[in-house]
């Protein structure tokens, strides 16, 4: 969205979708702070999952930082998600509980990681840092 003109039809279209999705994510966050592998069937996948959580944390924190999302309503969700992500970093510095790459949810465990999640975690961390350094 940062590449689109704010008054364009396309920006308004994507902004509407983004805000709807962000609002729904508030409702779907688990008590532990992460989002389940299957957003609408969390009871079937109770283990933490960090790749989606990192991407959602990035997206919500970025929205707050850009003034798109209300700080008061979204910041507690970002804080809870970031704290959850940090709990899933091992002593060796690996972010665990990453679901396998595939077409459906799979098993995530403390020592399961994927290369792409490192980037998602760093993107989230960058936006969280910006959020709290203001």
TrEMBL record:
PANTHER family: UNSATURATED RHAMNOGALACTURONAN HYDROLASE (EUROFUNG) (PTHR33886)
Keyword tags: Hydrolase
UniProt-listed InterPro entries: 6-hairpin_glycosidase_sf, 6hp_glycosidase-like_sf, Glyco_hydro_88, PolySaccharide_Degr_Enz
Source organism: Thermophagus xiamenensis
Gene Ontology molecular-function annotations: hydrolase activity
Any one GO BP annotation for this protein: carbohydrate metabolic process
Protein name: Glycosyl Hydrolase Family 88
């Amino acid at each position: 969205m940062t590449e689109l003109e704010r008054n364009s039809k396309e920006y308004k279209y994507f902004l509407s979708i983004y805000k709807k999705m962000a609002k729904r994510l508030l409702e779907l966050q688990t008590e532990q702070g992460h989002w389940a592998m299957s957003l609408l069937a969390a009871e079937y996948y109770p283990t933490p999952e960090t790749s989606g959580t990192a991407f959602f944390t990035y997206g919500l924190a970025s929205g707050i930082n850009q003034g798109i999302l209300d700080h008061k309503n979204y910041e507690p969700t970002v804080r809870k998600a970031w704290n959850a992500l940090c709990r899933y970093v091992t002593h060796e510095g690996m972010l665990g509980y990453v679901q396998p790459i595939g077409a459906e949810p799979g098993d995530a465990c403390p020592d399961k990681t994927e290369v792409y999640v490192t980037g998602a975690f760093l993107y989230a961390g960058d936006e969280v840092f910006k959020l709290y350094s203001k």
